[in-house]
Amino acid sequence: MFSPEGPSVRELAVQALSSVERGYDLLAPKFDHTPFRTPDPVLAAVESVLRPMGPFGTGLDLCCGTGAGTGVLSRLCREHVTGTDFSAGMLDVARERVRPDGPPVSWVRADARALPFAPAFDLVVSFGAFGHFLPRELPGLFAQVRSVLRPGGRFAFPLVAPPRPGTRGYWALLGFDTVMRVRNALWRPPFVMYYRAFRLGDVRRELDRAGFRVELYALPEFGRRHDGSPRVRLVVARTPDGPAAPDGPVSRGRRRAGPR
């Protein structure tokens, strides 16, 4: 599961008993050697779907971690790319490792629930971060994303279909989420990471409520389930083409760091 360069069991245990922010600060130097990093085939598949929708001017990698998705944006955007994350340690690694050949890249430490940006982006992407948000936080999170997009801008992220009940994958995810809930009931600070909480039906409903127009794209590279549905979809949520509302967002100061 982990390469020899990845974290030890002890290091993972220390991370799991820390806050989310502190845990990722500790994990950052070895994060790219864990299965938590978004695999390159997923990044390539997302890029192939988004490319015909461009070109884009500016892009934001939301909860960027060590910058895997930032590299995708640097190939899709012409003007500027920003990576934002709540973990200073992850951003430090991203600054060292991401060397895009495209537009300039900026790194900003920020809370995804209180983004310090004006509506300046044409494309926002996010990879593998939504398990760190509780279902009740989705309305605010999606409202924040919409607030930083220009009219007609897009918010895109891959979403893996849940395993069928009774399968090994189903029990593995259920077991992980159960362990995390017990851990958070007994230990402080909490570590929010639930693999089963981010569901397509809830996601579509909250994106609609936030004013997005939602489209789904199958990523055929990852096959289909027994019922014929895609194993992995790309969710693309687009803002209306008209001007922002009069009470729309303005540039904000830096806020407290939050979940990745």
UniProtKB/TrEMBL annotation:
Methyltransferase domain span: 60-153
InterPro entries in the record: Methyltransf_25 (IPR041698), SAM-dependent_MTases_sf (IPR029063)
Pfam families found in the cross-reference section: Methyltransf_25 (PF13649)
Name of the protein: Class I SAM-dependent methyltransferase
Keyword DNA repair: no
Enzyme's top EC category: transferase
Single GO molecular function: methyltransferase activity
Keywords: Methyltransferase, Transferase
Keyword field contains Transferase: yes
Region (Disordered): 237-260
Enzyme Commission identifier(s): 2.1.1.-
Superkingdom per UniProt: Bacteria
Segments passing through the bilayer: none
Biological processes, Gene Ontology terms: methylation
